[in-house]
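[job 0412] stage=fold_complex status=start
inputs:
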Amino acid sequence: MNLDIKLRKVIQEAVLTLFNQSVEQLQLQPTNIEFEGSHTLVCFPLTRISKLKPEETGLAIGNYLVEHSGIVARFNVVKGFLNLVISDSVWMQVFESIYADPSYGITSPTGKEIMVEYSSPNTNKPLHLGHLRNNFLGYSVAEIYKALGHTVHKVQIINDRGIHICKSMAAWKLFGNGETPESSGLKGDKLVGKYYVEFDRNYKAQCKQLEEQGVSKEEAEKQAPIMKLAVQMLQQWEQKDTETLKLWSTMNGWVYAGFDSTYKRMGVDFEKLYYESTTYLLGKDEVLRGVEQGVFFKKEDGSVWVDLTADGLDQKVLLRSDGTSVYMTQDIGTAILRFRDFPKIEGQVYTVGNEQEYHFKVLFLILGKLGYEWAKKCYHLSYGMVDLPTGKMKSREGTVVDADDLMDEMVEEAEKQTRELGKIEDSTEQEIRDLSEMIGLGALKFFLLKVDPKKRMLFDPSESIQLQGHTGPFIQYTHARIKSILRKADSLNIQPDVASLKNVTSLEPAEREVIFKINQYSTKLQEAAREYSPAVVANFAYELAKEYNQFYQAIPIFNEADHAKLKFRIAFSQVAADTIKKAMRLLGIQVPEKM
RNA sequence: GGUCUCAUAGCUCAAUUGGAUAGAGCAGCUGCCUUCUAAGCAGCAGGUUGCUGGUUCGACUCCAGCUGGGAUCACCA
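[job 0412] stage=fold_complex status=done
writing structure:
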């Protein structure tokens, strides 16, 4: 049984015995470093029950625990805080149970299913820094839920339809001269992105020219020939014009090939892809059904609305007067379709930036009004924007940080530092490149995941590329370091086993700290899932690595004369490395054997 | 303007969800490689938690107001 749970139980027992009353909630927290002990009971809330001063309450409980618990060796009371010292034999038991359990931290299947949506880019531009945060977050949240025994379906919706892709198509048709990814050597998404920029450039020039001829701004924006072409192509697309459809699917195909290689490098994956072009009509029936049921209403011009003023929001349009769908309509259809495809899922997690908070509030309310119980189990994993030192990323100002370029830079920097440190002399060129890839991506992922998803964050390229300190590579390094010890132990034929652990009766403070951290793993995992926050896992991995390094620096392992203790330290290092690896895996970060 | 949200060391982030003297990293300064990997460890310095009130044994955390950022409120996606 988990130590914290055990401790809570005996404290509850103490309170019941001493004060003749039961308590549900106990405030148990880690002890501050300046006091002796590992667990601290906050006594203030208990004074109502004990009818004693906080100090006296702590003293009474402390004495009881030392005498009856078999867990607590001694204690001290500072103000209203009862600091408990857990006996080393108990710490050893905790360690032993983790060590002996090969599936520690892996929960058996719960039978619960959820869906996680992430990425969901438009198909007119390459992926950028914002998508990286999105992808790493969504992927990691999915992995965290999997680790807790849930079945998770990773999906995305691809916005392959609409005026944005038609803009790229229009520009390509006018200026492309048949250019392809093959002919240009450009990645497909980059090529299509290039024509999107080309569209914008020409569109602006045409607008300006028209305005100089005396046309009003609004009129110019409509009349610009290139825009007229894009709009015309959208209409032709909707009329299923063969030639337009062909170009559309060709260019989208280029984009998907480009995205695929980027996703592969990022290490993210999807079980199923939803395409807007195939789902955009599905919401319409549901909306019309809603009109019949009276949850929506129709205006005189034929447009359909939902009234959310009772929920503190306003009225939203669901179908245009010409009967066509809006974005919201599509999302209604897609959500319902997903629950049909995966009938066992309890809910959905939408990994989408916080600028769409209002949209999802409305979406979930509407799904609830349509009578879908699962609407309550839908969650918008809303994350903050990634800012640059210069402010927001603006495509028109060319300040967008491209995902592929950024990964290249990070890996390049990792390789540079790896070679400078010169620890890899016996490695092949290929091994150095693989290692650099692992470190560069580890740095990037950790950087984006260590921050609370809800908060907007700053990406300063010069600082973000750091590989020391509170970073992924620091943790990767700690893992590699431990592996080096394990290799040495193996070569010395030191084989740790459960039996020899029984002969270890005392622990060094640094060892206790590491066991304490490792013991927190499952609690942290649950917290991360509850909060939809990989940052909890990231910071746990960092703290564990930090604690281990302190142990590593303080205690030379192989100098130990006591053979049982030596074996324990090898076992202990093994568990630390495994836990680091497991935690990092949930972030999508690999750890090396050597670095 | 309405609604939502954020503000913590010079910079980037934490703070066990109301608990002790608010912690890390980077940047700066000082030590530690003849011993298991110095991408490390130890230490110094750095704070009126945006401001003003309130709630209570206790507030970075909750409430109100103010200041300053950001988002959102389209028959756009």
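[job 0412] summary: The CA atoms of residues 12 and 25 of chain A lie 9 Å apart.
[job 0412] exit 0
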